[in-house]
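Reopening closed ticket. The problem is back. First fold of the pair:
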Amino acid sequence: MTQRIEDYALIGDLQTAALVGRDGSIDWLCLPRFDSGACFAALLGDENNGHWRLSPAGAAQCTRRGYAGESLILETYWETRTGTVKVVDFMPQRDRAPDVVRIVEGLSGSVEMSAVLRLRFDYGSIVPWVRRADGHRVAIAGPDSVWLRSEPPVKTWGQEYSTRCSFDVAEGDRVAFVLTWHPSHHPRPALCDPFEALEQSLQDWRDWSARCTYRGPYREAVLRSLITLKALTYAPTGGIVAAPTTSLPEELGGVRNWDYRYCWLRDSTLTLGALLSAGYVDEAAAWRDWLLRAVAGDPADLQIMYGPAGERRLPETSLPWLSGHGQSVPVRIGNAAVEQTQLDVYGEVIDSLFRAREAGIPAEPHAWNLQKSLLGFLESTWREPDEGLWEVRGPRRHFTHSKVMAWVAADRAVRTLEADPSLEGDPARWRAMRDEVHSEVCERAYDPERNTFTQAYGSAELDAATLLIPRLGFLPPDDPRVIGTVEAVRRELGHGGFVRRYTPAPEIDGLPGREGAFLACTFWLADALLLIGRKDEAREVFERLLALRNDVGLLAEEYEPLAGRQLGNFPQAFSHIGLVGTALALDAGEVVGVDEEAAG
């Protein structure tokens, strides 16, 4: 492992994404979808598991890099003793076939460039058969076929099961490489003009970014986060994956390695709020529609996550031929947490649909019936223990956050009926449920001696999810129990100026080892501080988080202050959602989406 997690930049075409290292190597790419098998998997192994490096001969790291304006088009600059070149990496929004385009442009002098393409299908395990055809290099293995060409043509040769080339670039020269995937039993797709695709992609991103309504002091960070969320969107359905990667470790050398290339219901309310608050109503509506399709069916069968198109079966297995990022094994694909019971997701879905209705997104005719069905199931199950939003693999417990979200479900249903009495429902029964949940949580999840809500009924452990209590409207921000919880979480879960989700332990989550500070939870701390009137402290926490972004503005799931490095899957939608929400809250002086009407 030569590259750290934060050494990577993201490119993508709104159906999949690639990670490009500071050394000019694409070390991760799944084709044709986010959750497909990777053809470049060096990120989780080594070069023999697939990569595509393009850089000046003998150069180790680029001089600098950044995105072209408000886009997802990566520009990497290399200054050498003989001259300077720029490499432009992007993936055009596709018609049919996915393309990866890499354009080398000479800026001064003359530079010898070197490229190594090592394709390995099925997560780095299958070496394809490579041949020449119509001026292309064609790699085929089973269902996968990849075509590589250059404009103007550059001589390539095979060496050590890889395709290589070497060429000189002088000032003003431009050499483009295009890698195209398609099913091996289909004809070759239409050729992509790399230079036209670059201009079109720049325009597409300029037009999209111009729709952002936020003009505050954190616009650059907010827009970069929104672009990242857009890049994690599976355009055909509107679903947003949690991250484009799997098994990047929460502890280097540890076993807390999970597949995040799916869409989590727990992210739905905060995602919707971030998109709506920045003016992206169409994207919010598409996410709402994905949500409705994914959760349709028997409420008892509701899952916590789904595939990008709403797929339900996400079986978990490990890939023993991959050594893991930083020797962190196992490398997993699929996610067994899909089979867990997490009662909070019922509240998340109902709250999301409530928010969408409040924002003026036209309601689908069947949406209210679906919400009634979900709430009806929750009425009979909210008293049961579950695995909680952190997907612990230990015993089920009565998690405080799960109970609070049951309260949210009942509260939003009541308020929906109050806003539209023409809808069918039983507000008296739902009010009774809301009151019962509220009373039980305040009695069984609150520790009066420490003046804090705890992770679960009767537990001593704390949980950063309790920071959401005032935002959700369960209690008002000035309630002493809220203030005590914020202070206790900051004190007991604080880690180098950031916040852990909880204190990892085998008896709680069933796993050995520890993890870093959780960035989304630290954004929640900033929000909670703002709500309880500590704006200066909130801004201090937020700007500490901003400083963690890598050189192209991206955040992983976690951060380890002692090692000074990012951890977990990357880039992480949850972290960037948190950034958008907190930035807008600090600018407006109030937390976006806080439910003051429900508080109390």
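Second fold of the pair, where the issue appears:
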Amino acid sequence: MSTAILTGRPVPGSSLEGDLRDLGFDVRVAEEAADVPALLAAAPAGQRVALVDSRFVGHLHALRLALTDPRFPVAAVPGAVTAQPAARGALDRAVRESTPGAGGETPPADAGAATGGPGTALTSERTAPDRAAELVEAAGTPVHRPELGTLVAVVPADPQTRNEARQAVAAVDDEAVRLRTAVKSRDGFVTTYAISPYSRYLARWCARRGLTPNQVTTASLITALIAAGCAATGTRGGFVAAGALLLFSFVLDCADGQLARYSLKYSTLGAWLDATFDRAKEYAYYAGLALGAARGGDDVWALALGAMVLQTCRHVVDFAFTEANHDATANTSPTAALSDRLDSVGWTVWVRRMIVLPIGERWALIAVLTAVTTPRITLVVLIVGCAFAACYTTAGRVLRSLTRKAVRSDRAARALHELADTAVLAEAVATAARGIARRLPSFAPPAVALLGGAAVVASALLTDFGGWLPVAAACLYVVASGLAVARPLKGPLDWLVPPFFRAAEYGTVLALAAQSGVNGALPAAFGLVAAVAYHHYDTVYRIRGGTGAPPSWLVRAIGGQEGRVLLVALAAALLGNTGFTALLTAVAVAVALVVLVESIRFWVSSGAPAVHDEGEPA
């Protein structure tokens, strides 16, 4: 249990103590200012502490936003401040400095004023929690101040303003605001208008029954896996059930994030589960469609694998572009300005969001087509739609990059290098070619990556299975991979290097498996790409969580992307059709085991700050 210290004598008739207990705080009262430092010191170590002015008037949800959000070390609203264990020392020092008799000086009564949301009354003096928050911030610790909107958070200075504040509290439905803000402010058309209007109530239902976001996320995964199983039956009834269950899985997927926002139960593990389970659900469903089609005599494994490759490459384009521009300076572009102008026209916002086939639109499309058509039609339409969306988004980002005058940071270059997923072979080439790479033009890294990847995929696709040309192209690709990462990836288009690497690796596996002509080769390739794609998604979410990429030993243990390309090409040339399929299966199992064990170990034990992933645009 956390500890809340009321500064000053409780106000008769105030519900503040009860509100704080409802939020999980053990309430203690400091009737004199000099008592606060001692009460803070007496609070159990390793717990959150809060200072709240006893005259505080406001909505319960305003206090909840300020005092219980796990993502911020220090947070404050007028009249209240809280610190998590990592920031306890900063709050303790601030309280001692601002407390008379404890080494601090009493600030003048008119030194400042507390601020609140629209329509809230203001105090004529700073409260003890406000002074502490200011000192914490002045000492270099960021203080989060949540947007309250119409919610009230105020410390009235006299009975009249107190009465006005109570009237302002009564005029706003606290629960309605809480429920409305549980929904993401920016989402796709289907999610906004077809899912969120009722999924928010499901989220509240879950919260009132003590369910956690992680439990709802897991329920969504299980539902999607059952949907994939229904699709695998190959019957019309199974396809209809699969479509319905996939849509319900998406409802649960929306509800888990809304539950996290509604109850402020954010966690590092939850963000990872939410993000990776989305990918697992969708790709498992592709496999279910392929199995169902096979029962009807139609082999669509190549289409299922192609859909997964395309969707994964789309995501890495999003990730790489975002990381490349995360903290770019002079971040201006005429293309971005045009995009902002288009966003000011209401209907264009929804059209542009739907064009990119975000997860709501994509899953609705898959579910409906599964129910009324065949797996082949479903996958073909999906691939065409995703290909168009990929061209649209990538072209826009290329234009932005070419017209933007920005200087990318070392952090961005490091993130792109980690997303590249190169290991021993490419790094050796990079070390040897560093001098040459410095003299190449700015567009060289993505150009070299594109040409090397195109060569190995084309050789695998256009030559007979078992030949040595793909092996030669794979060796060339190793050299190209090293050249592409031989210098820091700070060029305007260097964010394209990781997507080109993903397309080269996944495309090579797909092409060789398709060329082998052996039953089981494409399913084995699907498993290998799924295992490697999980590793790449895991890398992305570690970087986003601020914890850095997976350890270098892991990247080396699974060969790096260039090592896996060379291994698959050699296997096709040396092992024959059956041996090639066996090797794909063995490598898929090995990569999955190594990556999953390390990933689960990391995320379960991670000390990273609590986060919540708001979802990918695609």
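Update: turned out to be a display glitch only; the data is intact. Confidence is low (pLDDT under 50) at residues 106-124, 613-618. DSSP finds 26 helices and seven strands in the chain. Please close again.
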